[in-house]
Amino acid sequence: MENPSTLQESDDFLYAGDECECEDPTRYKQFGLHPIILGDVLPKPLTCVSDVNKEPRYRVMLKLGFGAFATVWLARDLVDKRYVAVKVGHGSDNPLPDRECEILSQIRQTGPGKHGYERVIELLDAFVVEGPNGFHQCLVTEVVSPISDPDTREHCSYDILQQIVEGFAFLHGEGIVHGDPHIGNFGIALPQLQQFEEDDIIDFFDIPEIVPVIHWDPKLPVNSFPPYLVQSVSMRYFLETRKAFPAGSLVTVKILDFGRAHRIDKDPDLLGAVPMMIRPPEFILHELCDNRIGSTWSEAADIWALGCTSLFRPGVLMKIFFSRQFNTVDLPQKRGRKFGSREIGNMTIVGILCYLLFELRSRDTDYLAPALYDRDKVWGVPRNEEVLRLVNLLKRMVITKPDERTSMTVLLTDPFMVERRKKKESIDCMLRPVSKVFGQSSDCAVA
């Protein structure tokens, strides 16, 4: 999700009411966002071009979020009586399903029953609507809480990495490259939401904060804009207050956003879009050198980006890895800045090296340890045995040469992954009913 804009900063619109952090209203234009308001039932009558007989089914309740190319809404499925998320993409002049819909539809057809399939967000329905700003792809999925939310990450453990690797092993096995694997595209499934009544959710969030959308230019087509914008809400916050947010072994990770995905056997139409700090070297070279060297996004690029993303577990791992290489306390405070744990928590190995070389301007410095010129020494030797296994796993992913990176399928047999599975099985075993109480035999082995 993109950073919200403060509406009052726009010169094109006149606003009333309190400040509200919402999407940029200027994105409601031809081939831009689709105007939606609370209470809309999608698809609206006579707007569905992918199925002209499709009846209105999904009643919009609240906004879950927005990004550069879509808005996401919490809706009630009036047929199956459940909560769903509806992602409404930006407009186009093409009424056909978009790339993300094609990829998720393929996964839904060929994936069930295969290991790792459950790690991909579940597509429940898909349709294309025609609106004032073009044709818009609508994807109906299960509801998730983004891991990019710092409060959501508090509920995560090393197990999320295992689940994500399982999901990517499945995707690559299906011949699919994700193209955009970063922390913003992973979420936690929220099946616990289904136990609550609509009134419970609506009453909890009370009257939503809205801002009217009024353009200074009266000549502009009014129907291109929604009459108001509404602030996003957090289902994590709702479930936490009800003590129903998943934690521990109940956390199920989902891989999201397949807008940059493509088949392995086809050249991608769009470049990978992960943040610069976790882009693989061959991809950066490809961009910098006008495609003369390097390569486009590939499964090897997925592996690198995921390995780097795994380093971002709120700064803790990075601090362990680099505590002997950098003196994060005594680095000079040039230009009012200090290179410390916050920067370490937001850079990859390559990014840190580039940062230091840029800031300190010299290889001969007391702050840049000689160990940085030896790849194995860069990683260090963590004292914690579990972290050591994790470091060894990541070292198999973050390798400069793409063809030397270990495949996701092979990573499933890595000692770190094996130990995580054993621990999870042990916990699951302890949570099962005691056989003596229920008169049943137990298949749990005593550790």
Automatic annotation (TrEMBL):
GO terms for cellular component: cytoplasm; nucleus. ATP binds at residue 87. One of its GO terms (molecular function) is protein serine/threonine kinase activity. Gene3D superfamilies: Phosphorylase Kinase, domain 1 (3.30.200.20), Transferase(Phosphotransferase) domain 1 (1.10.510.10). It catalyses: L-seryl-[protein] + ATP = O-phospho-L-seryl-[protein] + ADP + H(+); L-threonyl-[protein] + ATP = O-phospho-L-threonyl-[protein] + ADP + H(+). Its EC number is 2.7.11.1. Keywords: ATP-binding, Kinase, Nucleotide-binding, Serine/threonine-protein kinase, Transferase. GO terms for biological process: regulation of mRNA processing; spliceosomal complex assembly. This is non-specific serine/threonine protein kinase.
